[in-house]
Amino acid sequence: MTMMDGRARWAVSALFFANGLLVGSWAPKIPALMERLGITEAMAGLIVLGLGAGSLCVMPVFGAMVARAGSARAVRVAAWAACTSLVWMSVAPGYWPVAGAVFLFGGVIGGMDVAMNANAVAVERHRRRAIMSSCHGFWSLGGLAGAGAGGALILAVGEVAHAVIVTVAVAGVLVWALPRLLEDRPAPGADKPPLRLPRTPLPYLIGLMALTAMIPEGAILDWAAVYLQREMGASLAVAGWGFAACAGTMAVMRFLGDGLRRRFGAVATLRASAGMAMAGLALAGLSDAPGPAIAGFALAGIGIANMVPIAFSAAGNVPGLAAGMGLSVVTMMGYSGILLAPGSIGFLAEKLSLGTIYLALAVLLVIPLALSHLARTADFEGR
């Protein structure tokens, strides 16, 4: 491995951290926006939905940009646009300007997501060594830092100053990382891929794998605390450990995931991960006390951690398809699970217990288990 290879690997990892820092910093802004605008939970819900809509609308645009101009150029455009995005919404003067700023925030964050995952795939190809899981581990660290410090910063210095501080921190990361990215422009004179969604079914099947892996993650993020508090009588302090246990084990396993993939292969790692996630969700769903349920969420985090990174690596290496186009399909399908499914779960929770829903989500993971053979394109060693 050359020094340049190492620089490119750490540069793309830093971009994942910066993206996670921005997304994590968004979470504590929601109550601040509600207070400033004087809006209800339902009106805030529409703003949050706009974030998801922005991501899903813009991801294909950056997928096409990756395919035409390379991931390094696409990620530079998206990253600098995303850098100041928290400031936009902090200074927007009313409900609809804020909603528009959040829609744009979702768009540039989603575009950056597609481009940086494509660059991670390019680094994997160049090094013939898996890095995707640890890149997502850096995203988790960024999200933890943004969410953990955001609330305290907003209380201490205010909404606008918090946004400026995060912007300066992200800008510092970009100044260091962007010049060190692996350049992956198409060769001069190479045929330009058509700007259309893939016509082969493979990326959509891999996208289905990512979708069904991310739905349980969203369900734990948004509903674990409610499940522990309302159905098991846990205190609010204990209820918060549901997602914390899952997020903690996910972060650890993402840093271990590349080594596991290199040793056992993507298909075997994905199958073991799916089985562990199923067991964890089943334990959480069948539990009648907070302790075992939290242990179930922790086990589920171990399993969920590497399913999506493997799917993204597989999508970026579909034979005969530009990495950006395959990744735009898989990221759109995958993130729709974490953005849109939790609302549907809220509706179902009025008819069924959350325990029953977690059991159903364990069964849902039969789908990525059945499709796991498609992950073989994620392997690099020996090519």
UniProtKB/TrEMBL annotation:
Any Pfam family the entry gives: MFS_1
Protein name: MFS transporter
Membrane topology: Multi-pass membrane protein
Keywords: Membrane, Transmembrane, Transmembrane helix
Transmembrane intervals: 12-30, 42-65, 77-96, 102-123, 135-157, 163-182, 202-228, 234-256, 268-287, 293-315, 327-349, 355-375
Subcellular localization(s) per the UniProt record: Membrane
Top-rank taxon: Bacteria
